[in-house]
Amino acid sequence: MKSHKLQGSTSNEVKAMNSNEYHHQTNLPEDDEIDLAELWHAIWSGKLIIIIISALFAISSVLYAINQPNIYKATTLLSPAGEQSGAGGLAKMAGQFGGLASLAGINLGGGGTDKTGLALEVLKSRFFLENFIEKHNLLVPLMAVNNWDIATNTLIYDEEIYNPDNKAWIREVKAPKKPQPSSWEAFQEFKKILSITTDKETGMVTISIEHYSPEVATQWLKLLVTDINSTMREQDKIEAQNSIDYLTKKLQETQLADMQTVFYQLIEEQTKTIMLAEVSKEYVLKTIDPANAPEEKAKPKRGLIVMLGTMLGGILSVLIVLIRYFTKKQTPTKLSNDSLHTEHLNQQNQKNQMLGKQEYT
Fold first, then answer.
1. Which residue in 19, 63, 262, 339 has its CB near the most CB atoms, within 10 A?
2. d(CA 167, CA 180)
């Protein structure tokens, strides 16, 4: 009976010790709250590292910003020149005589065309820009220039890409690319420096070109506006002439006096279109504010680069300091907890052995 009581008490003591061990283990990692004072202490203790890393980033960002070449942006403001196209004239006549012309089996078409929107889409198209680059020999100043000498007003070429002495492309590329950039590469590069925006309220169009040289940017912009007006003018002249040929043929085929009147008026309208196209230089886009060589650079924003670089260095250095601090703090704590746990287990084993001996006796 006494042995049974002793065995029961021994079992209860073992359970109690195991329960105390469980609570001891579960209570170890509960201190996970962030102490602001400790956080500030960690940052202050690593202030030297923060200062050094931030200074390195600041110096690097200053050097990077200084070595970046200036980019100048030439800008021009344009407005729609009006509805004076062959398609617009034919649409007006179709509205007046469309019903009568349909009696003779002729479809004059209908609906207006946004010539400004069409011109801007043509301006951004690959076909137009590739022809523009080839027509004005822009491949070298577009693809091989990496700076501009303001003192001598000369372009500086990247000699790893292009040799200006013998005018040869020497860049190293992998197939299928060649040393001389393709028209597709030139088109992609020109798209990066070209910007077109339209004001939805006023309809005004702003076109800008960026380049190392402000004079080159201005010259290209003027050529671009001239070429798009010329392209749209030639297209409308061709369409108007095709309409005249078609209407003249139909005029010869019909014997109806009313239809002949319609055809004569349509032919007259298309003739006016050709005349307007020949005398109007700014056919689609009229210049409101012409492009001028800018005197101030558009980018890089060197002050912003230095500020962002320094901030990045400061944030990175603080993270490094905090990670190092809490890593060092957790290492001895973990070792201490492990040693306490081991000592506790040893004490428990000793008590179990003693209780086992007492039970045996």
1. 262
2. 11
